[in-house]
Design a protein that fits this description.
- The protein is α/β, with parallel strands linked by helices.
- Helix content is 41%, strand content 16%.
- The protein contains five helices and four strands, in the order βαββαβααα.
- Strand 1, helix 1 and strand 2 form a beta-alpha-beta unit.
- The longest helix has 19 residues.
């Protein structure tokens, strides 16, 4: 089984967010999330893990983990889509602001990949609290009143 683990800050997503490298604190958090997920999946019998890695930074790469380096926003998108299309499952860790998580979930789906998380349509819906409340209320779920 092949699993793609993508983390935004360490995986090249920062190229589309800012010209300057990310703060060290975000880089440390991203490395920790990526490392934990990739190592846990790689520890499972028969699982090969692919990760994207921003060329500017070290990328965790242990047994059963293959790092694919990117050096631009365009390269990040192309490699993420290529790897997601070839993987059995993809895990995407990205911030919800500015549509970063939604865009990458869509890229996975456009590539024919399968998300080991909610679908892009769910991410889009739940990214807006009012839309979520209206969606739930239309289905009989009691929700607090909101302002549209």
């Amino acid at each position: 089984m092949r699993i793609l683990v993508y983390e935004f800050v360490t995986g090249g997503g920062w190229y589309s967010a800012d010209d300057a490298p990310p703060p060290e604190s975000l880089l440390a958090e991203g490395r920790a999330m990526l490392g934990a997920l990739a190592e846990d999946f790689a520890a499972l019998a028969g699982v090969q893990v692919d990760v994207l890695g921003d060329r500017r930074f070290a990328t965790p790469c242990g047994a059963g983990i293959t790092a694919h380096r990117v050096s631009s926003a365009a390269e990040e998108r192309a490699k993420l889509m290529d790897l997601a299309g070839a993987a059995d499952w993809s895990v995407v860790v990205a911030p919800e602001f500015d549509g970063h998580l939604l865009a990458r979930a869509r890229w996975v789906e456009q590539a024919g990949g399968r998300l080991l998380s909610p679908a892009a349509s769910i991410i889009e819906l739940t990214g807006d609290k009012q839309s979520t409340a209206e969606h739930l209320a239309a289905r009989g779920v009691r929700v607090p009143l909101g302002m549209a």
